[in-house]
Specification:
alpha/beta; 6-stranded parallel β-sheet; 16 strands; binds thiamine diphosphate
Length: 519
Amino acid sequence: MIHCFSQDPFFKCFSIVDERSAGYFAIGMMDKLQRPVALCCTSGTALLNYAPAVAESFYRELPLVVVSADRSQAWIGQMDGQTIPQQGVFGSMVRKSVHLPEINSEEDLWHCNRLINEALMECNRRGAGPVHINVPISEPLFDFTELTLPAVRKIQVFSEKKLGDLCKFSSVWNDSCKRMIIIGQMPHNEELIELLEILVLKLDCVVLCEHLSNAASPNFIGNFDALIYALPEDEVENFAPDLLITLGGHLVSKHLKKFIRSHPPKSHWHISPSDGCVDTYQCLTDLIDAEPVSFFSELEIKDGNHKNFVRTWQKASSSIPIPKDLPFSDSTVVGSFLRKLPEYSTLFVGNSSSVRNIQLYPLPLGTEVFCNRGTNGIEGSISTASGYATLHDGLTFLLVGDLSFFYDLNGLWNKYIGGNLRILLINNGGGGIFQLLPGLNKSEALEPFVAARHNSSAEKWVEAAGFHYLKAENETDLKKQLPEFVTAQSEKVIVLEVFTSTEINQATFKLYNQQLKKL
Ligand SMILES: Cc1ncc(C[n+]2csc(CCOP(=O)(O)OP(=O)(O)O)c2C)c(N)n1
């Protein structure tokens, strides 16, 4: 590392043998420069000697960057030379501590770059403070085959306070031909939706959102997961953005993530007033610490009279069929239910197939959608929906799979639940999602251990809880039960258990995918 830093004219290097003193030397430099100064040392106790200066920088809010060499992790504690556990050694005296992976793949390279960016951002964001970058390196160490350090991605951070100076963003926007905004999970925000609609209609910007974005608009595209799956290879490039802007939280679509990662835009701005650095698409260039509405309101953007990109996406979107005439299965049950869902209801969805299947259908007006998508856990679906329903006057629906339902049976066991909670349980006898993952069906473990096949029914549990139980085993039953299930008035919680067949679910999934590929 010393070879690399000292041979690159970007860095001005100083040599101070005693690391403790080097740390304070850097503090003196920061006092003068009011800018970050980096320390670089070898592995072992050398690093510990920076601790006093790290503590001083922490409490004086000085942007000290500690870069420490480390050994291959396999050799820590093996009586090999100069090794101590260096990861996170400064504990809470640094604002951020990152431990880099050794690079053996493209993914490691991205991971390393992201971690370094995160540390550098943190040393100078909302105040300042020390950060630690620990760098394990395996032998051989002294080949020096590269003449110069490579050009790498530096993610820029812009804070709300500096929003006055948005020239750079305005000109990137105006120079881009294919602009795209992806909205992740977020609560409904009318002001934002109205603003984004103008961007679609007047400024040739494609807006993609899932139901979890709570941003329904006829001008936005929601069926992009199926659309991307259906795209012929030679057309993919026409759909890839050159400017990507992301807002909100998690996105479910794996196809979209893969699509953007393999066709990275020139610029990717993530607009978020919260902390952290999320690089879901591996191409983040700018992190904008701002509320999306204030950011877009301040951008100076020109009218884009061409509508090519929006037209391309909208044409493809309108050709994607809403599943119909398919056999009775998980996805068609979701379709039948959503067609009957009263307007302005609240809909909770379980992780697994439920959250994916709702995306295949439009939602009734004013539906608000929630899901525990932060970590995709299946353990709290009933409890979360019932917590919400307890504070909500209107109807609260939960669409959930059987493993998620049985996991959270205790969610039914509380004294606050009332008749405005309705649970549509799709019982496909196990973790149906796993039957749809390519390759997993080759494993003997799939049925007994992965999908956890079972023959349980919720009937007795539901009745024991004192709730009203309905059941459907085919389309006719379902049509009969749905009106009662969605009725406005009920004294008790209503649980509608719909039984589907794994084999038919798999066949239907295949059939719909084949239809998409033939478009
Ligand atoms: C607490 C927890 N354990 C395990 C998992 C892994 N997991 C993801 S989906 C899933 C199966 C869910 O099955 P089910 O609720 O029946 O829905 P389906 O797949 O049939 O739609 C499991 C076990 C998880 N997400 N959370």
